[in-house]
C-alpha cells in the first residue's frame, strides 16, 4: 500500500501545529546579536531624536499625539474633556475635539510629562517596536511553511527585521506614525494577548484586550473573538478589565464619564465627516454611494449584521484548522468594516495580513503559484498605493466620484471582501472536486 504525499499548499499545510513562538528565547537571542539590535533600534532612536529637534525648533509633529497629550493635561487639571470642540492645552496647529473614552485620557498621562514633539518621538519609537513585535508574533504563530515555501522564512529574526523596515511603506503604518496615532500599539496589545498569552493559557489572558478597548472601543470585537474560540475565561477577564476601567473613571470624573457614554459616544460629528474618503468602513461607503441618504448609516449596520454570519464561520474555520493568526485577522477586518469610523490609518492590520500572505507563497512556477503571487501583490498594492491621497476628496467631492473612482476610493473596504470571497469559492471548489472524484464515488 502506498501513501500519497500532500501537495504544497494542500490541507497538510493547514493542520494544527504546536506554537513555535518562544518570545523569551527570541529576545534572549536578539540580545546576543548587536547588529540586529542596532538595526531594530535605529528607527526608534531616530524618531526620538527628531522629536527632540522638533521641540527645539518648534516643528508641528503629531496632530493626534497632541490631542492625546492635551486630553491627559485636561484630566490632570480637572477641566472637562467633552464640553467644547477643542481642549485648552492643544497647540494652535492641532485644534481637534477629544473623541476617546475617559480611560484613554488616563492612559495618556505619561505623554503629558514631556513636550508635544518629544511625546511624538517617544510614541513613534514605541509604535515601531510594537509593529516589530506583531511581526515576530505573527511569524511564530504560523504553521510550518510548505516544502516549496521561501527558504528565508526559517530565520524569524531576519524576517522580522526585513518586514519591520518594509512595512513602513504601507500607508496605514506611515500615516499612523505621521499623525502620532496609537494604532500600532493597540494592535500589538491584542496580538500579544490573543496569540501568545491566551494561547498558552496564561492567567493574564484578556487583560491587554480590555486595556486596548478602553482606549478605542473597536477592540471590543476581540472579546467576542475570545469567547467564540473557546477562551471564555479570557473573554470575561477582558470585559471585566474594560468595565473596571470605566468604573474607575466614573469615580474620578463622573461628569465626563456620564457625558461620554450618554452623548459623546453617539456624536460622530466630533470625529469627522463619515462620508470622507478617509473613512474606509461600510458606513462611509454607504454614505458615499447614497449621497448622504438619511438611512445610509442604518443600512451599513444591516449589512454588517449580514456579514457577521460568514465572518464568524470563516473565523471559526481558521481556528479549528489551527490557524490562529488568520482567525484573528478575520475578526480584525470585520471590526474595521463594521465600525462607524475606520480611518485609513486604522488599517494597520494589513501588517500581519501581509506577513501571512507572504508566508504562503510557494517557489514553484505552477499556475496556482502565480495566482498566489498575483493575489498577494494586489493586496500589498492596495496598502502602498496611497490611492486615497491621489483621488479628489474633501468638500463632498466623494459624493460625485465616477464609478472607477468609487472602486479605487473604497479599495480598503473591498479588499477583505474580495479576499474572503476567493477563499470561500476555493474551498467550495475543492470540496466539490473531492465529492466528484472517482475515489469518493
How would you describe the overall organization of this protein?
The protein is mostly helical and about 450 residues long. It is built from 21 helices and no strands. It has helices spanning about 10-15, 25-30, 35-55, 65-75, 100-105, 115-140, 155-165, 170-180, 185-195, 205-215, 220-230, 230-250, 255-260, 280-290, 295-320, 325-340, 350-360, 365-385, 385-390, 405-410, 410-435. The longest helix has 26 residues, at about 115-140. The protein is globular.
Helix content: 55-70%
Q: How many helices?
A: 21
Which structural category do the helix and sheet elements fall into?
A: mainly alpha
Write the element-wise H/E pattern from the N-terminal end onward.
Answer: HHHHHHHHHHHHHHHHHHHHH
Overall pLDDT confidence: 88
Question: What Rg, in angstroms, do the CA atoms define?
Answer: 23 Å
Distance between the termini: 20 Å
Which word captures the global form?
Answer: globular
Number of strands: 0
* pLDDT < 50 runs, ≥5 residues: 1-20
Strand content: under 5%
Describe the main β-sheet briefly: none
Descriptive key words:
441 residues; mainly alpha; 21 helices; globular
Question: What's the SSE blueprint?
Answer:
Layout: H1 11-14, H2 23-31, H3 34-57, H4 63-77, H5 102-107, H6 116-141, H7 156-166, H8 171-179, H9 183-197, H10 207-215, H11 221-228, H12 232-252, H13 254-262, H14 282-289, H15 296-320, H16 324-338, H17 350-359, H18 367-384, H19 387-390, H20 403-409, H21 411-436
Amino acid at each position: 500500500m502506498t501513501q500519497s504525499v500532500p501537495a504544497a499548499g494542500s490541507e497538510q499545510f493547514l493542520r494544527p501545529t504546536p506554537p513555535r513562538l518562544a518570545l523569551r528565547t527570541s529576545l534572549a537571542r536578539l540580545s546576543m546579536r548587536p547588529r540586529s539590535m542596532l538595526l531594530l533600534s535605529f528607527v526608534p532612536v531616530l524618531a526620538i531624536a527628531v522629536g527632540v529637534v522638533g521641540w527645539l525648533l518648534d516643528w508641528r509633529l503629531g496632530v493626534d499625539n497632541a490631542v492625546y497629550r492635551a486630553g491627559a493635561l485636561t484630566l490632570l487639571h480637572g477641566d472637562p474633556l467633552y464640553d467644547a470642540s477643542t481642549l485648552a492645552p492643544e497647540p494652535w496647529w492641532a485644534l481637534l475635539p477629544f473623541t476617546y473614552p475617559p480611560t484613554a485620557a488616563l492612559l495618556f498621562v505619561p505623554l503629558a510629562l514631556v513636550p508635544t514633539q518629544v511625546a511624538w518621538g517617544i510614541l513613534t519609537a514605541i509604535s515601531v517596536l510594537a509593529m516589530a513585535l506583531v511581526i515576530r508574533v505573527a511569524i511564530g504563530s504560523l504553521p510550518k511553511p510548505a516544502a516549496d515555501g521561501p527558504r528565508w522564512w526559517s530565520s524569524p529574526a531576519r524576517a522580522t527585521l526585513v518586514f519591520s523596515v518594509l512595512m513602513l511603506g504601507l500607508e496605514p503604518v506611515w500615516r499612523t506614525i505621521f499623525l502620532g496615532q496609537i494604532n500600532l500599539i493597540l494592535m500589538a496589545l491584542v496580538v500579544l494577548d490573543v496569540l501568545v498569552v491566551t494561547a498558552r493559557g496564561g492567567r493574564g489572558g484578556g487583560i491587554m484586550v480590555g486595556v486596548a478597548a478602553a482606549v478605542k472601543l473597536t477592540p471590543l470585537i476581540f472579546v467576542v473573538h475570545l469567547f467564540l474560540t473557546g477562551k471564555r475565561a479570557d473573554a470575561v477577564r477582558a470585559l471585566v478589565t474594560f468595565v473596571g476601567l470605566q468604573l474607575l473613571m466614573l469615580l474620578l470624573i463622573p461628569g465626563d464619564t456620564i457625558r461620554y457614554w450618554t452623548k459623546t459616544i453617539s456624536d460622530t460629528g466630533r470625529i469627522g465627516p463619515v462620508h470622507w474618503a478617509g473613512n474606509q468602513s461600510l458606513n462611509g461607503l454607504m454614505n458615499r454611494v447614497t449621497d448622504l441618504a438619511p438611512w445610509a448609516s442604518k443600512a451599513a449596520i444591516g449589512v454588517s449584521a449580514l456579514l457577521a454570519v460568514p465572518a464568524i464561520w470563516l473565523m471559526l474555520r481558521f481556528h479549528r484548522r489551527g490557524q490562529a493568526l488568520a482567525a484573528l485577522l478575520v475578526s480584525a477586518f470585520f471590526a474595521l468594516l463594521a465600525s462607524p469610523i475606520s480611518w485609513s490609518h486604522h488599517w494597520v492590520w494589513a501588517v500581519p495580513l501581509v506577513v501571512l500572505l507572504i508566508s504562503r507563497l510557494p517557489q514553484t512556477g505552477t499556475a496556482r503559484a502565480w495566482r498566489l503571487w498575483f493575489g498577494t501583490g494586489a493586496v500589498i498594492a492596495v496598502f502602498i498605493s496611497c490611492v486615497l491621497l491621489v483621488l479628489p476628496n474633501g468638500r463632498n467631492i466623494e459624493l460625485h466620484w465616477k464609478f472607477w473612482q468609487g472602486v479605487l476610493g473604497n479599495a480598503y473596504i473591498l479588499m477583505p471582501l474580495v479576499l474572503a470571497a476567493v477563499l470561500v469559492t476555493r474551498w467550495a471548489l475543492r470540496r466539490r472536486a473531492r465529492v466528484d472524484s472517482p475515489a469518493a464515488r
